[in-house]
Design a protein that fits this description.
The chain has helices spanning about 1-15, 25-30, 60-70, 85-95, 105-110, 155-165, 180-185, 195-205, 235-250, 260-265, 270-275, 280-285, 290-300, 300-310; strands at about 35-40, 50, 55, 75-80, 100, 115, 120-125, 125-130, 145-150, 170-175, 190-195, 215, 225, 230. It has about 350 residues and is α/β, with parallel strands linked by helices. It has a domain at about 125-220: 3-Layer(aba) Sandwich (D-Maltodextrin-Binding Protein, domain 2). A 5-stranded mixed beta sheet has the order 10-9-11-8-12, sandwiched between helices. A 3-stranded parallel beta sheet has the order 4-1-5. Pfam families: SBP_bac_3.
Length: about 350
Amino acid sequence: MKVFKLAAVVALLVAGTSVVQAGATFESVKKKGFVQCGVSTGVAGFSAADSKGEWKGLDIDLCRSIAATMFNDASKFKVTPLTAQQRFTALQSGEIDVLTRNTTQTLTRDATLGLLGAGVLYYDSQGVIVKKSLNVKSAKELGGATVCVQPGTTTELNLADWFRANKIDFKPVVIEKLEEVVNAFVAGRCDAYTTDKSGLASTRSTFPNPDDYVILPEDFSKEPLGPMVRQGDEQWFNIVRWSLNAWVEAEEYGITSANADDMLKSTNPNVQRILGATPGMGKNLGVDEKWAYTIVKQIGNYGESFDRTVGAGSPLKLPRGLNQQWTKGGVMYAWPIR
């Protein structure tokens, strides 16, 4: 009799491990009815307000994807614009639920800030932009130059590392707000401006005469940009991580906003799981079974968003490069939804 009781207890414990344990952030987001995302103060193509005050961009679409997962409605989100120095404090304090601002995933940020990176949205590298009139073809020609940079960023650290490694002297001009640092560069307060190359391309596109500026060829660093959440709430971490993975994997399997309904009839077991035709994945996350279907139907897959916001269909026209699917020469490789 004792053997049967023990077996019953073990069975209950094993069954319990599959039950989603609601976390504080998850419950808070559910209760208030929207996702609060921390975004940049304005980077064209990634997160910027249009003439109507509506925020758009690749980072915004990620925020919308999380809202779609939580509420089956991609419109249930709000944004908090944050500078590089404000972003981590805002997340740590609970002012925002998730940081979808262009933020580099690093060991130090995972290990010392009480935060966690939840995946890579955009693979980038740091570079430098100068005026063509400077007649500079390489960053190695910038000896003695002044370089505008924002504080509290990996950009500031990478800048010092690269120039030190190449034994080149330079003078940093440190300015916190993006708009102010860009204005300082355009006004000639510094010879060069450095940040992620996607940011440089975005900024250049807003200049009155973009062709007067050139992004130099050197890559100062690796910059895997992605969302971050607070540590201690695994369910919310999973919501953010798998919203991103579903977005990427939908593109891999050819699921688009236009064909999502037809793809519900697919006999491909991977597609069935992604779209919720085969139930279970939503239950594992604690959300509706059609969570990934909703992301794709309302926003499009990762490739659709990329093209619309920063790629071929946008003013930036950035190449996919490393952000192409792994099956097409890039490194975008989603974890499987199964």
